[in-house]
Design a protein that fits this description.
Number of helices: 12
Largest sheet: 5 strands, antiparallel
Number of strands: 20
Distance between the termini: 92 Å
Length: about 575
């Protein structure tokens, strides 16, 4: 047998209990209208059980009269009423919605829409003549449907104009949601209901239960919600503060004004994530334009990140604005979006060479903190020739190797020529073998991917080959038998060794930024000079040709070195003179 009351004589079948206010003697049921088979809500007021007087019925009649006149989709319609043995029942339209008193989460967009919907209901109530003041706006009296349909219920404390409409509970309002003027029974205005709505929204945003809202209210009746919402936007924080101002004159004057001032759905501040907080630029050549990409993104949902770049002021930089800078450009300089690719461009043509520059980019945002720094470091290139250093170690090794090889080869060839009693033909064999060895070394270097290094060996081989050919054409050669083969073999080995050494020396100079022609000429002069010295040292006597070669290559070698050093010094001086008007680090 059901414990529910039997309202069938009145045309209703109770299905279940929705709520129970024992202190107020009120029980709410979900029922079905027998005539239409539509679901309705029945509020049963039991005056006899709470020692109320039947004079209170007159107040409820006035409340019913008000509800009859209200016609808004956000207010459940009044349908019927009938007396009972202990009081009376009021029947209203049923809305399949749940009160905000039931804990659940809402997105910023949903909270924004909820605020709009309640304010629109209040605008409707306040635009009536006379206006209606609800006086009990709290989470439990706001219903939200599955598709964010919002309904305002329980007009038991409502006031029309200057007269009370009725009382359906013990207290005329709910502590924590009543503004101070209502709490002290002072004059109410259209701004009074805004206080309850503001506190309700604070409950939703902070996750505070309606029974615990008093913990956020200080002795001056100010709601201190900001510590619980460190990421709330400034516009929303200001709007909520104005909604719950203790002094009624400091609030919005009415719901229409509050609705007009309501910020957009961006309740919370965006978060800022940078793909890089430090950027390093390295110029490979003078005046190079350098670029790097930096990603700025916001992982927080429901809010759009806004940003503006600025190069922080520096004592060495010319005066600039956030949109312009002498040598740094950020594109885009301003952006709106939750993922933005920013290109940082550095123009080193306005900077001094071979210097380190440190600057700071400032990203101003609508987040907290408002400004995010990004450090950039720029290393400019050296002057093309001034930054190069002669590899003296490589040249000394090549010099000693060539000198030693020439000395040993000369000793061996001289011995073979003495045995064969034919020094001219022996020298021819050594030159021819050396030419072949140099060509072989050039071929090997080229096959190994060292084409630049192979050029020096190739040129030296061609030169010795030409000399050997001229000796053959002179008609002074005579057969020398095995001694020619021995000298040619010696020349071949020395040619290969020298060719490989020359190739690696050229590659080493090129790796240090030397021009190919300069590197090849320097290696050829070094090898020729050392070879002439080695031959002369071993023979102990120098003919006119050998002396001429030694002196000529020595002077040329010295001239090349001096020219390089003097040119380097001159370019450095010119560069420093030209950089007097460039931006300093």
């Amino acid at each position: 047998m059901s414990d529910f009351p039997n309202f069938s004589e009145n045309g209703y079948q109770v299905e279940k209990k929705l709520g129970h206010n024992a202190a107020g003697g009120r029980v709410t049921y979900l029922a079905t209208a027998l005539r239409t088979q539509e679901q309705v809500v029945i509020k049963q007021f039991q005056f006899a059980k709470v020692q109320s007087t039947w004079t209170d019925y007159n107040a409820y009649e006035q409340e019913i009269q008000v509800l009859r006149e209200l016609n808004h989709p956000g207010i459940p319609r009044y349908l019927d009423s009938f007396p009972t043995d202990s009081g009376f029942c009021m029947v209203q339209e049923y809305k399949p919605a749940v009160s905000l008193g039931v804990p659940r989460s809402f997105s910023p967009e949903q909270i924004h829409q909820l605020a709009i919907s309640v304010l629109e209901i209040l605008v409707y109530l306040q635009n009536r003549l006379p206006s209606v003041i609800h006086r009990d706006i709290k989470p439990e009296n706001i219903l939200v449907g599955p598709h964010m349909e919002v309904y305002l219920i329980d007009f038991g404390f409502a006031r029309i104009g200057h007269g009370e409409v009725g009382i359906s509970s013990v207290v005329k309002g709910t502590l924590g949601f009543m503004p101070p003027e209502q709490l002290f029974n002072r004059q109410l205005t259209e701004a009074s209901d805004l206080y309850g709505l503001g506190v309700t929204l604070i409950c939703l945003l902070t996750g505070t239960k309606s029974t615990e809202i008093g913990q956020l209210i200080d002795i001056s009746y100010r709601v201190n919600f900001k510590p619980l919402l460190p990421k709330i936007s400034v516009r929303w924080a200001n709007w909520l503060e104005k909604m719950v101002e203790p002094r009624v004159k400091d609030r919005y004057p009415d719901a229409a004004a509050a609705l007009a001032a309501l910020p957009d759905a961006s309740i919370y501040l965006p978060e800022v994530r940078l793909s890089e907080s430090n950027l390093e630029f390295q110029a490979a050549r003078s005046g190079e334009i350098l670029t790097q990409m930096l990603t700025v993104y916001n992982p927080a949902p429901g809010i759009v990140l806004e940003g503006e770049w600025e190069v922080a002021p520096h004592t060495s930089d010319p005066p600039h604005t956030p949109a312009t800078h002498a040598w740094i450009r950020i594109d885009p300089g301003q952006f709106t979006g939750n993922r933005t690719e920013c290109q940082i461009t550095v123009d080193t043509s306005k900077l001094m060479s071979n210097q380190l520059y440190n600057r700071t980019l400032a990203l101003h945002t609508n987040s907290l903190p408002k400004t995010y720094p990004v450090s950039i470091q720029v290393r400019t290139a050296a002057i093309p020739i001034a930054g190069r250093q002669l590899p003296f170690t490589v040249l000394i090794v090549l010099l000693l190797l060539s000198l030693g090889t020439a000395w040993i080869a000369t000793a061996m060839v001289a011995e073979a020529g003495t045995l064969a009693q034919a020094p001219t033909v022996i020298n021819f064999g050594a030159l021819a073998g050396a030419a072949v060895g140099l060509e072989a070394a050039a071929w090997g270097m080229n096959a190994a991917g060292r084409a630049d290094g192979a050029i020096a060996a190739l040129m030296a081989g061609v030169g010795l080959g030409v000399i050997a050919m001229l000796m053959a054409l002179s008609g002074t050669l005579v057969a020398a038998g095995p001694a020619v083969v021995i000298s040619a073999t010696i020349g071949l080995a020395c040619g290969c060794l020298s060719g490989i050494a020359m190739g690696f020396a050229v590659e080493s100079l090129l790796d240090r930024g030397m021009e190919r022609t300069f590197a090849t000429a320097l290696v050829l002069l070094t090898t020729t000079f050392a070879t002439a010295l080695g031959i002369g040292w071993k023979l102990g006597e120098r003919g006119p040709l050998l002396t001429l070669v030694t002196v000529a290559t020595g002077l040329a070698f010295t001239a090349v070195l001096l020219h390089f050093l003097l040119q380097r010094t001159k370019l450095q001086a010119n560069q420093r003179q030209a950089e007097r008007h460039l931006i300093r680090p």
